Structures are given as structure tokens and as C-alpha cells.
Amino acid sequence: MPPQPLRGFRDYPPPSAGARSEIRRRMRSAARRAGFQELETPSVEPLDLYREKSGDEIASQVWAFRDKGDREVALTPETTPSLARVFAERAVAEPLPVKWFTVARLWRYEEPQAGRTREFLQFNLDILGVAGLEAEIDLLAAAGLVLDAAGAEGLYAFRVNDRALAEGIGRALGARETARFFRAVDQFRKMDRSAFLRELEASGLSDDRARELTELFTTVGTGLPASALPAYFERLQDWGLDPAARAGIDRLQRMAAGAGAAGLGDRWVFDPTVVRGLAYYTSSVFEAFARSGDGRALFGGGRYDRLVELFGGPPTPAVGLAIGDQTLEQLLRSAGRWPDGEPLLDLYVVAMAPELRAEAIRLTAELRSAGRSVDLDLMGRSVGRQLKEAGRRARQAVLLAPRELERGVVLVRDLTTGDQVERPRSSVVPSA
Prior knowledge:
This protein is of the alpha+beta class and about 425 residues long. The protein folds into 2 domains: about 15-335, Bira Bifunctional Protein, Domain 2 (BirA Bifunctional Protein, domain 2, 2-Layer Sandwich), CATH 3.30.930; about 345-430, Anticodon-binding domain (Rossmann fold). Helices cover about 40% and strands about 20% of the residues. β9 (about 285-290) and β10 (about 295-305) form a beta hairpin. The chain is elongated and about 90 Å long. The two termini are about 50 Å apart.
């Protein structure tokens, strides 16, 4: 039996790899339309980059080892610390705001399941240098462009919260262990109610308070639109929220208004159960979720205003998000929007006689140099087999036939309609 990939790793042969490449091409193009520039960072980083910076969840999943220089290193489990390190090095000379995107292969040692492998691709968008909510609004607008370009238009919405509000709710209800309270809240949609109550009580809430919070979370459903926020926030205020939590409410209300102005009103909902697990988030947090099915998160992100300072950079407000390839692929496949592969070739050159193979090679080279995507038969196959391959892989076929070439023409066949026309050989190759 031939060797198999390790558990949690996958091969992507054609056409799967081509489909994934096409989705990334669309996403890159959309990010650039939104004013983002691409950044690349290493696949291996010092382990210290993630210690006490990414939170317990990622720290427990990192693929760490000692290299040949006896240094503690790790396969990159996320790109935000690397991005913060790069910006800290360039902060003095880098004009603000910085809008970067990354497409990175990442590794986390976690239990494989549907939509989660140990090696995966992640598409990140980050804005640095903007303290106001304009950054969150522009980031979510860009994320909308990227998801729509990938084919997910109408299939998702954004769940938004503020960690200052979440912390304030915990304090008002008696939580003594904020980290444990956050872990419980973050798992609200993934655990049964009795387990959730037990976790709340373990964080310090009384039974009555835990049940009150559970009931309040349940009323949210899949999220509250902007029109429902005043009544909901008024109910939260009855718990006696402190100024920090009230500031979180104010940010959420202003963000909802800005999201409406950016054309995201139909995709923006408030969800108090979104807190995100990473330790470096400081206020706004958000997810995109599938409107149908199990509502699994398509991306997660938030504001991380203190991370750059941890790497020796100046105080720098920042906000970012990460889109995972696996859940996005599942969503697009379930909606019938996953591409069959990479786009078809422009042309396939068919030699209709063995003596014309050299001319087929010559024409193919000319067309490729002119910027067209072209292929030809390399196997010496019959004309019928060549045409069958052309129909599978290209939009049009250029047929080289002896009599036509003697007159200086070729046959160009539309492989969708079957229509065929004669064209001068000299006109087939676009002029520079």
C-alpha cells in the first residue's frame, strides 16, 4: 500500500487544487480592490512569538520543536503575531494607515473533523493605525467584498460584539474568573444548556444569575439587527453595567450605524456570545457565520490595540480577521457554488495531420507569448481524441489542417456552441 498523508493533512489533486487556487485568486483581487496590499511571512517562527500572546487555545495547539540550532521554533499557527512583528520593525517608516492581507499555510495540532484539518490555508485582512470604528467598518466591508467574490454572496452574516461589554456583563453578574467566563460564553452555541450553566457557575455566577444570562442569550437567536439594539441594551443596563461596559455599548451602536452606511445593514447583527478565544483582542470582536446549516463561523477577528507594543513597536491601534479555507469551501459546496477547477484555457491547438505538429508547437508558443492560455497534444493522439481533450479543457480550438494552412488560414471552433470559422493564420495571434 503506498504511503498516505498524515492524519489531519490532505492532498488536493487537480481539479480540486485548481478550484482552491481560483477561489484565492478571486479573494486576492477583491482585497486589492478594497485597498489592501499583500504581505508574506515565514512558515516557521520562534516559539516565543506565540507564548502569552495568542492565548491558551493556540498555545496548546502549536507544532513546536527544537531546530538544528537548538532553538525553540514553531510551525506558524496564525499570522497576526507575525504581522505585528513585521509592522513593529517598519513602524517608523510605514505610512498610516496600513492595510495588509496575507494568504498563509498554517498548522495547528487539534482533533481533525469536518471543516478542520491540522494544515490549512487562511486569508487574513488587517488594518493598523486607525483608532476609530472606521477601521472595523472598512474591514467588514472588505470582508464582504472578499466573501462575495469567492461566491458566498447572500450566504452569510456578521456577528459582532465588544469584549468590554462582555467583561462588564461578567463583572455585573459576579464572575470571579474572567477567562473562564469568556470560555463559557464563547462555547454557548456549542454546548448543551446544563453544561453551560455549570461553566458559568464555575466562573463565579450564582445559579440564578447563570440562568438569567442563559435566558438572555437564548433570546438573541442567530443575532439581533441594529433596530433591536436599543431595547436589548436597555435590559443590559438594568444589571448596573460599569462605564467600560457602557462604552462598549456605545461602540456597538456607532458601529451598527456605520455598517448601515457601508451597505452591510442586512449582514450585521449583534451577538453577546461572540468573545473570541485569542488573548490579544481588546474591544470589538466579530465572526461571519453561515445563515443556513449549523451556522458555523467562516471567519473570526477583532481589535488588538496592544499587540504591536509587545514586539517593541509604538502604541498602534489595529483590527483584523482571518477567513479559513475549510469552512468556506464547505459553505460554497453546499450552495453549489464551488468551481469545477481553474478557468478553462483560452485555446487548444489541434494538429489534424502528423506533419503539422511542429506548426502546432510554433503557434502555441506564439499564443502563449501574446498572453493567451493555450495547450496542445503531446501524445500523438488522433484528431478525435485531441478534440475531446480540447472540449474538456478549453473554450476554443484552433484546428490546423493541411489544405487550409496552404491558403494561410486556420479553423477556430467555439467548443460550447460548435460554431466554426476560418481565420487568417496571421490574425490568430494578438498583436503586441
